[in-house]
Amino acid sequence: MLKAGVLGAGHLGKIHLRLLEQSENYQLIGFYDPNLEQAQAIVDEFGYRLFDSAEALIAAVDMVDIVTPTFAHFDVAKQAIEAGKHIFIEKPITNTVEEADILIALAKKHKVKGQVGHVERFNPAFTSVASKIENPMFIETHRLAEFNPRGTDVPVVLDLMIHDIDAILSVVKSDVKQISASGVSVISETPDIANARIEFENGCVANLTASRISLKNMRKSRFFQKDAYISVDFFEKKCEVVKMKEAPEHPDDFAMILQNAEGIKKQIYFDNPEVSTNNAILDELNYFAEAVKNDTMPIVSLEDGARALQVALQIISCFKK
C-alpha cells in the first residue's frame, strides 16, 4: 500500500480524504491545510491526522494528493517531487505551461510518477465508448452548470471546459492547428460562458461550449466519424453508438435503411455498450496507484495535463483580442 497524504482540505479535498481511506491501494497518513479552523473541524469530524506543515506531510508519505487552489499547485508539487514523492495533482495542472513543463522535467529527473485529476476520463459513459471513437472528424461538446460561487476566481475554460479539452485531446491523434473563441463575463470578473473552435492538422474540428450560469446541468459530447455517431452524456452517465454499414441485398422488414442521392444504401444499427456504475474519483486514484506499483504510464499523465492547459490558455487568449 502507498502511504498517502492530502494537501488541501476544501470541498474536493475532503472527498479525496474519504476515498483514500476507503481504497485498498493506499494507507491514508493524514493531511495539511493552512486554514486551521477548517482543518480542525475535519479532524474533529473524521479523526484524520492533521500535520502542522506541508513539509512534514510530504516527508511522511509516498504519494502526495494535491487538492489545493490552482495557484499553489506548482510550489507544493515541486517540493513533493524534489523529495522523491509521487504526485496526484488536481486539474488544471498549474497556472502556466512553463510551470507544468518544469514539473514534467523534475518528475523525470527524480523518477517519480505524476497524474492529473481530469476525472472525466474515468466517467463510465466515456470509458465504455472510448475504444469505439476512431478518427473523429467533428466533435461537439456542451458543459453547462448552474451558478456556484466556488470556482469563479478562474475563467469558465479552466473551471469546466478543460474537462472536455482533455477528453478531446485523448481521442484526436493530431496536433492543434488553429483555435478561435469568444467568452463573456456575466456575473464574475472572468468569463462565465465561452465557446471555442479547435481545428486539428488532420482536419478534425471540435466545437466546445461551457457555461456556469445555466438553468440546468448538462455535460454532453458528440463524436462524428466515418459511418458512426457516438454520444456521451457525462452527467447522466449514458452513451449511444449509432453505426452504418452497407445494406444487405434483402434486408429484413425491421431494418433501418437510408439511401443517399447516389443510390447507395446503408443500414443503421445501434451498438450501445453497457455502462457500469463507478466512483470516477476513486478509480483515478486507484489507477494511479497501479501505475506506481507497475511502473507504467498513468492514464492522465503530467504531459496530458500540460497539453490540456496549453489549449485552455490559448482559448482564453482569444478573449483578449
Mean pLDDT: 92
What is the fourth-level CATH superfamily of the largest domain?
Dihydrodipicolinate Reductase, domain 2
How much β-strand is present in the residues?
Answer: 25-35%
Net shape: globular
Structural notes for this entry:
With 321 residues, this protein is α/β, with parallel strands linked by helices. The chain folds into 2 domains: 2-112, 3-Layer(aba) Sandwich (Rossmann fold), CATH 3.40.50.720; 121-238 and 310-319, Dihydrodipicolinate Reductase, domain 2. The chain is built from 9 helices and 14 strands. Strands 7-8-9-6-10-11-12-14-13 form a 9-stranded mixed β-sheet. The protein has a 5-stranded parallel β-sheet with strand order 2-1-3-4-5, sandwiched between helices. β1, α1 and β2 form a beta-alpha-beta unit. α4 (70-82) runs parallel beside α5 (97-110), α5 (97-110) packs antiparallel against α9 and α7 packs across α9 (302-319). It is globular and about 75 Å long. The N and C termini lie far apart (50 Å). Residues 155-216 form the GFO/IDH/MocA-like oxidoreductase domain. Pfam families: GFO_IDH_MocA, GFO_IDH_MocA_C3. It comes from Aquimarina intermedia.
